[in-house]
Specification:
Blueprint lengths: L2 H17 L4 H14 L4 H13 L3 H15 L5 H10 L3 H8 L9 H17 L3 H8 L12 H15 L3 H14 L7 H8 L12 H62 L1
Helix pairs in contact: 1-2, 2-3, 3-4, 4-5, 5-6, 5-7, 6-7, 7-8, 7-9, 8-9, 9-10, 10-11
């Protein structure tokens, strides 16, 4: 591949990875451009498959995942392939993928994800009891900080809730919440719902209430200003009275002084 073309493909792959979490559709579009430029690269096809999966283009994602397995021999994509089959309304094919012998050789995280998908496929087929049984594995009680643990416990609790085993479901929702450090599963909220608790977001206030609060404040300020003006007027009146009293006192003092001077002159005479 020419250097200039390789750089262009790399730029689109970097952009795809950058938008993957927040804007999967945009990430998918960048990956598609990279595929148009370099369709024979397994890494490019895998990028298209993953972004298509996250953007919910399940049909195209499944096609790309198959190409990835054929081109690279990477079987870690099997769980996502099975989930695509579920999303396309084919739970039987999802179960068939979960039974492939190669699954036992995959990484632990991929095996757990495959269990979750298989249990979901059982529920899609109305086999809730079988879904619960599928998820009853030793890993449920494993002490680990792996990302798959809260997802596994949540899937188990959700299946229990669907089966009407509310008390058991509540226990496992709490256990899922305890392992879910960033709250990505929503297990705590599900537990609260089963307990009859309701959370209120204080940030979501009615606009009408906000307007009332804003319009009331100036009126309160006007009242305060009116009180201040009244106090100022009263102070001014008091000052005027005080000034008049001082003036009368000065005049009285002057009259007394004149009387004293007249008396002194009379004595001299």
């Amino acid at each position: 591949m020419p250097r200039s073309l390789a750089d262009l493909v790399a730029q689109h792959l970097v952009a795809s990875g950058r938008f993957l979490d927040d804007e999967p559709e945009l990430a998918y579009q960048h990956a598609r451009v990279a595929r148009r430029l370099a369709a024979r690269l397994g890494g490019v096809r895998e990028a298209v498959a993953i972004t298509a999966y996250l953007a919910e283009h399940y049909d195209e994602a499944l096609t790309e995942f198959r190409a990835v397995r054929r081109m690279t021999g990477n079987h870690e994509v099997l769980a996502m392939m099975a989930d695509c089959e579920r999303a396309l309304g084919r739970p039987e094919k999802a179960l068939a993928l979960s039974r492939e012998p190669i699954v036992l050789q995959l990484e632990e995280s991929t095996q757990i994800e495959m269990l979750i998908v298989a249990a979901g496929a059982r529920r899609d087929m109305g086999q809730t009891a079988a879904a619960i049984q599928t998820l009853e594995v030793p890993e449920l009680t494993k002490r680990t900080r792996a990302d798959w643990l809260p997802r596994l416990r949540y899937a188990y609790a959700d299946a229990l809730a669907e089966a009407g085993r509310t008390d058991d479901a509540l226990i496992w929702f709490h256990r899922a919440a305890g392992a879910d450090q960033d709250g990505s599963t929503g297990a705590a909220e599900r537990a609260a719902e089963l307990e009859g608790l309701h959370f209120t977001d204080l940030d979501d206030e009615d606009d009408e209430d906000t307007i009332i609060e804003v319009t009331d404040e100036p009126e309160a300020d006007e009242d305060v200003d009116a009180d201040d003006d009244a106090d100022d007027d009263a102070d001014d009146d008091a000052d005027e009275v005080a000034d008049e009293d001082d003036a009368d006192a000065v005049e009285d003092s002057a009259e007394d002084l004149d009387a004293d001077e007249d008396l002194d002159e009379g004595k001299k005479d």
